[in-house]
Design brief:
With about 150 residues, the chain is an alpha+beta fold. It has one domain: CBS-domain, CATH 3.10.580.10. About 25% of the residues lie in helices and about 20% in strands. The chain is built from 4 helices and 10 strands. Strands 1-2-3 form a 3-stranded mixed beta sheet. A hairpin with a 2-residue loop joins strand 9 and strand 10. The chain is elongated, with a radius of gyration of 15 Å.
């Protein structure tokens, strides 16, 4: 199965944020959308980084509440592994396992992939982050809890 096949059933929406937004705004967005990561994009929809809950927790532990005033660009992970719609689910799951990360933006020609539909049930191979206002994609590897997928 390919990423494109998943997207044809699921859709490809994902929350994005500008690198100039402050960390407090990102925290609010994560909480409102009940998601674990936000793709950071520049004005041309190119992936500039990714901001996860882990990035935020590490920064807060190191700097305290003052870090909430920092720009997202100062905290985000800049080295982002991506995939394309042509990649197989098996290959991206292997990438995520080997790289020890859970979020994998899907890009085409350097830009986040744009696809419709966001209301279908979750495909079994992975969970997609789905906000109501963007038409972009991130494939999110399911977590295992006591040997079972969530």
């Amino acid at each position: 199965m390919t990423v494109k096949a998943i997207l044809s059933r699921k859709g490809g929406d994902v929350v994005t944020i500008a690198p100039t937004a402050n960390l407090a705004a990102a925290v609010q967005l994560l909480a409102e959308r009940r998601i674990g990561a936000i793709v950071v994009t520049g004005p041309d929809d190119r992936v500039a980084g990714i901001l996860s809950e882990r990035d935020i927790v590490r920064t807060l532990a190191a700097r305290g509440p003052a870090a909430l005033d920092d720009n997202v660009a100062a905290v985000m992970t800049r080295k982002v592994t991506t995939c394309t719609q042509a990649d197989t689910v098996a290959s991206i799951m292997e990438q995520m396992t080997e790289g020890k990360f859970r979020h994998l933006p899907v890009v085409e020609q350097g830009h986040l992939a744009e696809l419709p539909r966001q209301d279908e049930p979750q495909p079994p191979a992975g969970r997609l982050l789905v906000p109501p206002h963007h038409r972009n994609l991130v494939v999110d590897r399911p977590r295992r809890v006591r040997g079972r997928r969530q």
